[in-house]
Amino acid sequence: MVDLLEVSGLTKRFGGLVAVNNVSFSVREKEILSVIGPNGAGKSTLFKLISSFLRPTSGEVRLKGERISNLAPHIAARKGVVRTFQETTIFKNMSVRDNVIIAHHLRSRANLFGFFLGTVAAKADEAAFGQSADDILALLGLASLAGETARNLPHGHLRALGIAIGLATNPSILLLDEPFAGMNHDETMRMVSMVRRLRDLGLTILLVEHDMPAVMKISDRVVVLNFGQKIAEGTPPEIQANDKVIDAYLGS
Ligand code: ADP
Ligand code: MG
Fold first, then answer.
1. Is 161 in the pocket of ligand 1 (CB under 6 A)?
2. What ipTM does the predicted assembly reach?
3. Exposed site from 32, 93, 189, 219, fewest CB < 10 Å?
């Protein structure tokens, strides 16, 4: 399998605190890779580094070999590293469908941009996850709610809309920040199966998550952080049997 995203020696200091400490791993094409770890392990910081919302103190992130770690977040997004949209960036007074269509327009601008630059990445992105707005809504279980005003959506569906908006921008890799946070069991299971379906359609997914059982169900591979360092990497069964991981979670 091809490595799509490479994280090498990534480090972020906040004053004397090393929130992310020399972390390296790769995300392979068409896999679901999850980053887990106890509170304060550095997950959110790592997520912000990968999505270019924070600059690393040292180390780098590469997408298809191209360094993205010093780009502005919107440029990294155009290159295909797309994080899901939080509730605050959903247009609440607009319909579910219009939210996705607007994101589609942003995508075509991104494609135009890449087209004029003639970059290899832009050409590869065009072939990546080209789904129509209606296909995307159907994939995320939102087809019957397409005409609904976004603000009327229940929590789980609003979260799905955040993913739909991200998908409409045609990502190479989709970053999900705690996709199961605040969800009940049924919502979590629905989200697990939706994300797996996206992976089966060829999307690459990196998620940062707290909910261990859901992570073990959804992931192809798992990276575990503790105190900013990577302490383990492997398949869910390997991670569940790893003594360092068990100690880190029991100690938290
Ligand atoms: P997690 O998401 O795994 O709970 P975080 O990445 O949020 O962990 O935090 C890792 C460590 O970095 C924590 O000790 C946290 O207090 C610290 N930290 C995170 N963001 C900042 C910041 N902007 N300034 C200072 N310290 C921070
Ligand atoms: Mg966090």
1. no
2. 0.98
3. 93
Nearest protein Cα to ligand 1, atom 23: 14
Residue 102 confidence class, pLDDT cut points 50, 70, 90: confident
Q: Where are the domains of the chain?
A: 1-74+206-252, 80-171
Q: Taking 90 as the threshold, does the pLDDT of residue 242 lie above it?
A: yes
Domain spanning 80-171: CATH superfamily: P-loop containing nucleotide triphosphate hydrolases (3.40.50.300)
List the residue whose alpha carbon is closest to atom 12 of ligand 1.
19
Query: Quick check: 164 and 137 in contact, CB under 8 A?
Result: yes
Report the residue among 35, 36, 45, 55 best suited for mutation to probe ligand 1: largest number of ligand atoms under 8 A from its CB. Answer: 45
pLDDT in tens, 106-163: 665 555 444 444 444 444 444 444 567 888 999 999 999 999 999 999 888 998 999 9
Instruction: Report yes or no: 8 and 50 within 8 Å, Cβ to Cβ.
Output: no
d(CA 141, CA 118): 35
Ligand 1 pocket member 40 (CB < 6 A) = yes
Model-level pTM?
Answer: 0.87
Contact 58, 13 (CB under 8 A): no
Topology agreement, domain 1-74+206-252 and domain 80-171: yes
Into which CATH architecture does domain 1-74+206-252 fall?
3-Layer(aba) Sandwich (3.40)
Q: Nearest CA to 49 among 12, 78, 22?
A: 12
